Amino acid sequence: MPLKLVFLGRLEDVAGAPDREVAGADSIEGVLAALEPELAAALREPRIRLAVNGVLLAGGDAPALSHGDEIAFLPPVSGG
Amino acid sequence: MPLKLVFLGRLEDVAGAPDREVAGADSIEGVLAALEPELAAALREPRIRLAVNGVLLAGGDAPALSHGDEIAFLPPVSGG
Amino acid sequence: MDAGASDVRLLTESFDPAAALGAFTDAHRAAGGVVGFIGQVRAGDGVEALELRHYDPITLPAMCDLAGRVRARWALDGLLIVHRTGVMHPGDPIVLVAAAARHRRDAFAAADFAMDHLKSESWFWKREKAHGAWRWIEPRAEDFEDIRRWG
Amino acid sequence: MDAGASDVRLLTESFDPAAALGAFTDAHRAAGGVVGFIGQVRAGDGVEALELRHYDPITLPAMCDLAGRVRARWALDGLLIVHRTGVMHPGDPIVLVAAAARHRRDAFAAADFAMDHLKSESWFWKREKAHGAWRWIEPRAEDFEDIRRWG
């Protein structure tokens, strides 16, 4: 039950790649817990927005994850 | 000692032509006095600005005229 | 062309505003942004033709004076003002104003100011042809309201 | 193209903003005026390249949403938003916003609003290359000040 993680902006540098496939987890917390601590800390910063399958999460959302879900980590935008 | 009169905007319709050569006169008042009354009245309207040889007159200016002077009558502009 | 100079043109023939704006943008590569305004004869109003008349000794010098005031008021890399005179038809370009600036806000304000002043103060007399008859256009109150915004 | 629809494009390759603006102007002959903003990579700042990254599922939908808000706020005949993504070099166009309106003031305000919101809210992440090294750019306080003007 793999998941796809997408890292935007400077998070790509922390992760070492723009995206990564990871083993399945039931929740975003479960995904973060399995990552290397430095990356997990960067992804947990309060200014990072999350989107699951292209839908932005609101603060406090903790969606259940399914096979093949794409989770994007979005730092503050730097403008067009 | 002819003068050239230039009629802008709707003054052209009143004068029947965009410009006209007239016999010399010492002053603008002298020029106006020699014109047909309807045209002179239109040129005397307070919103009409005057320019002599491309220089706008300020209210109250009464320049002496010389041979070949060009006097332009400028109604309010209607915008670009 | 000196990149810092203003480019002011009064044209008796039609022009291509997009091409002129493209050349202006290419000439100001150090500017982050270019704001352009293109004014054209509106189609579909029943106006068959529009004529702008100007007075040579005054019209272009006043446009150059306006360009100088715009340059003094905002930090621009370049300013372009192109204005038609003569007879035009629906869809024909009348005016192009373009301002290039390091900061977007300056370019917007400069183009906006230049247009307001061209519309209300520049030395053009306009007439329109509709149903085969020409009619001189009087100044519009709206143009004077626009210009009052700038203090 | 429906003359009343908005045209919103996210491009991975370079484009010709003047040609796009010309086609847009030609398509809106009933509009009296078109305001265009062209943003380009500034030359002469020591920046060798600029990269914008976007996120497919969100970036273009949010641009379309912005276009809808602009259309709801001003009476426009047409709205065009073109934005680059990917690697660009000095002088390359980044963005074109164009608004066609019957009234000049609406076109200026709509283009200005769209640019302020694209700059501060759109889903792009930017990095710059200088002296051979890439560096991610953080949001600028100035962009948030611009957006606050609109209430």
Automatic annotation (TrEMBL), chains A, B:
Taxonomy, superkingdom: Bacteria
InterPro entries: Beta-grasp_dom_sf, Mopterin_synth/thiamin_S_b, ThiS/MoaD-like
Protein name: MoaD/ThiS family protein
Annotated organism of origin: Novosphingobium album
Lineage: Bacteria, Pseudomonadati, Pseudomonadota, Alphaproteobacteria, Sphingomonadales
TrEMBL record, chains C, D:
Highest taxon in the source lineage: Bacteria
Pathway: Cofactor biosynthesis; molybdopterin biosynthesis
Keyword Ubl conjugation listed: no
The entry's keywords: Molybdenum cofactor biosynthesis
InterPro entries referenced in this protein's UniProt entry, alphabetically: MoaE_sf, Mopterin_biosynth_MoaE
Top enzyme class: transferase
Record field: catalytic activity: 2 [molybdopterin-synthase sulfur-carrier protein]-C-terminal-Gly-aminoethanethioate + cyclic pyranopterin phosphate + H2O = molybdopterin + 2 [molybdopterin-synthase sulfur-carrier protein]-C-terminal Gly-Gly + 2 H(+)
Function according to Swiss-Prot or TrEMBL: Converts molybdopterin precursor Z into molybdopterin. This requires the incorporation of two sulfur atoms into precursor Z to generate a dithiolene group. The sulfur is provided by MoaD.
Family: Belongs to the MoaE family.
Assembly with partners or alone: Heterotetramer of 2 MoaD subunits and 2 MoaE subunits. Also stable as homodimer. The enzyme changes between these two forms during catalysis.
Protein name in the entry: Molybdopterin synthase catalytic subunit
Organism, scientific name: Novosphingobium album
